Amino acid sequence: xxxxxxxxxxxxxxxxxxxxxxxxxxxxxxxxxxxxxxxxxxxxxxxxxxxxxxxxxxxxxxxxxxxxxxxxxxxxxxxxxxxxxxxxxxxxxxxxxxxxxxxxxxxxxxxxxxxxxxxxxxxxxxxxxxxxxxxxxxxxxxxxxxxxxxxxxxxxxxxxxxxxxxxxxxxxxxxxxxxxxxxxx
Length: 185
What we know:
With 185 residues, this protein is an alpha+beta fold. It has one domain. It has three helices and ten strands; from the N terminus they run αβββββββββαβα. A five-stranded antiparallel β-sheet has the order 2-1-6-9-8. α1 packs antiparallel against α3. The chain is elongated. The termini are close together.
């Protein structure tokens, strides 16, 4: 009985570690608003951290975007990257387009493809009028700057990754052990 309980605990721990620790260490973040003026931000972001990006078109100016990341805040997703455009004067880009990309989400040498992606505004609502494309390690989102403005100047890109096969095996083994133990009682 103790051996079975140990397997259940090990499976639960392995699953928890996989969910808490994001696959990437550094994500390349790129974003562009296009209206009367085209402007963008670009640079590496340490996953789990906080960065302030200066506008490429106005370096050192008042146009900055705060980028943060960590575990997802929306149910059904594992990780997120948030972009807060409040200091960017997004109203200057009303009626334009917005594009965002996160590149390098899948760490080199790993096999954890992206499974699902969701895009939310600053109020936690699904962002309307967005087109989402993703592959094994990159996410590309396009939409309209008006949706960013109406969403509190915040966009949150959230995703799940397919767990490693070993993690799934341990989880299944732990679940089977728990079910068997319940039946034996």
